[in-house]
Design brief:
Blueprint (H helix, E strand, L loop, with lengths): L1 H9 L6 H33 L2 H12 L1 H12 L4 H18 L3 H19 L6 H41 L1 H17 L4 H7 L4 H21 L1 H13 L7 H6 L5 H17 L8 H4 L7 H15 L8 H28 L13
C-alpha cells in the first residue's frame, strides 16, 4: 500500500473529492464556455445580422464542445501534454455517446482517462505511443460502455426537475433558484451543473433568476464597502468573491438567498421566463451577461422555429426585472434590515480588490 501511495504521489494523482467535484467541474465549465456557449452567441449574432461567416464560426466552436470540456478537465488535473491532447478524442466520444447528459459523461470519463494516462506517462521508452494509446483506449472504451447510461441518468434527473417546475412552478421556482444560486457563489460550477442535467425551459429560467440574485444582489449590497470596482467584479464577474467573507459571517449570504427565493417564483409564475438557449447559460447569471444572452438566444431560436410568434415587450420587462432590477433593489433592502439588527456589520462585505 505504501508503494502504491508513493506511486500516486510521484505521478501527481490526487484522489480527492475537492479535486474531482470542484476543481475539475469548474474547469469543465470553462471548456463549455469557450466552445458551446461562445459558439452559440456568435452564431446567434450571425443569424440575427445575416452574417453567414459568424454562423459558421459559431458552428465550429459548438462542434468542439466535447474536446473542449475534456481538455479543460485534463488541464485542471495537470495532465502531461500527451495525455492532455489525447483527451480531445475522449471528450468527443463521451459527449456524443452521452447525448443530452454528455457533459456529465465527459466529466466522469475524462477524469478516469486522464488519471490512467498520467499513471503510464513517461514509464516506458515508447511514451509517444503508450501514453496516448492508454488514455484514448480507456476513455473510448468507457465512453462506449458508460456514457449512454450516464447520459440517460443525467437526462432523467434534468427532465424530472424540469417537469416538476412545470407542474409546481412556485415551489420549484424557489427551490431551483435558491439551490443554483447558492452553487454559483460556492467554489463549484453552477454552469457545469446546469449543463450536466440539461437544465433548460422554465427550470432554466429559475436558475438564471437565482444566479442573477446572487451576483447583482451582492454587487449592490456591498457597494458601500467596495464601490464601483466591487460592483463590476461581482455584478458581471462572480459572487464567489464573497466566499471568504461568507465563511467569516454566513449571515451576509442570507439577503442574496432570500432574494433568489423571491425572484425565482416571479420568474416562473409571473413572467414565464425560460432558458431555451444552451443549458450552461442557465448557471452563469450576469457573468459577462451570459444568462440574459442565453435567454435571448432561446427567444431567437423559438421564433425561428415557429414556436414563438415574436419577442414581446413583456419578455424584455421580465428579463430586465428578474436579472437586474429586482436583485438590485431587494437584496440591499433586506441587507439594510440585517445591518440594523447587527447581523451584517461594517466591513463584513469588504473585498480585497
Amino acid at each position: 500500500m505504501e508503494k502504491f501511495k508513493a506511486f500516486l504521489k510521484r505521478k501527481n494523482i490526487i484522489i480527492s473529492a475537492k479535486k474531482y467535484a470542484i476543481e475539475t467541474m469548474s474547469a469543465m465549465a470553462q471548456g463549455l464556455f469557450a466552445t458551446l456557449l461562445i459558439g452559440t452567441i456568435i452564431s446567434t449574432i450571425g443569424e440575427h445580422t445575416g452574417v453567414e461567416i459568424l454562423v459558421k464560426i459559431g458552428g465550429y466552436a459548438k462542434a468542439a464542445t466535447g474536446p473542449g470540456m475534456a481538455v479543460a478537465i485534463g488541464y485542471s488535473l495537470a495532465a502531461p501534454p500527451l495525455v492532455l491532447f489525447s483527451l480531445a478524442a475522449v471528450g468527443a466520444a463521451a459527449n456524443e455517446l452521452g447525448g443530452a447528459g454528455g457533459p456529465l459523461a465527459v466529466l466522469i470519463i475524462a477524469i478516469i482517462a486522464a488519471e490512467f494516462g498520467k499513471a503510464v506517462s513517461k514509464e516506458t521508452k515508447i511514451d509517444i505511443l503508450v501514453t496516448p494509446f492508454v488514455t484514448l483506449m480507456v476513455g473510448a472504451l468507457l465512453s462506449l460502455l458508460l456514457a449512454p447510461g450516464i447520459g440517460w441518468v443525467a437526462s432523467q434527473v434534468g427532465n424530472a426537475i424540469m417537469l416538476a417546475t412545470e407542474l409546481a412552478p412556485f415551489l420549484m421556482g424557489v427551490v431551483v433558484s435558491v439551490l443554483v444560486g447558492i452553487a454559483l457563489t460556492l467554489p463549484i460550477s453552477s454552469a457545469a451543473i446546469c449543463a450536466a442535467f440539461s437544465l433548460t425551459g422554465l427550470a432554466g429560467g429559475a436558475a438564471v433568476a437565482g444566479c442573477c440574485a446572487q451576483m447583482v444582489g451582492f454587487a449592490v449590497l456591498s457597494f458601500r464597502e467596495n464601490k464601483w470596482g466591487g460592483l463590476v467584479a461581482q455584478g458581471i464577474g462572480t459572487s464567489m468573491l464573497q466566499m471568504g467573507n461568507i465563511v467569516k459571517n454566513p449571515r451576509i449570504w442570507l439577503p442574496a438567498i432570500i432574494t433568489s427565493a423571491i425572484t425565482g417564483p416571479i420568474a416562473t409564475c409571473v413572467f414565464d421566463l425560460r432558458m431555451d438557449g444552451p443549458a450552461v447559460a442557465a448557471g452563469m447569471g450576469t457573468c459577462g451577461l451570459v444568462g440574459p444572452i442565453g435567454v435571448y438566444t432561446g427567444w431567437v431560436d423559438q421564433v425561428a422555429n415557429g414556436l414563438k410568434a415574436s419577442i414581446t415587450a413583456m419578455d424584455w420587462v421580465g428579463l430586465i426585472l428578474i436579472c437586474i432590477v429586482l436583485p438590485a433593489v431587494l437584496c440591499p433592502l433586506i441587507g439594510l434590515i440585517f445591518r440594523k439588527i447587527g447581523w451584517i456589520k461594517e466591513g463584513d462585505l469588504k473585498l480585497e480588490l
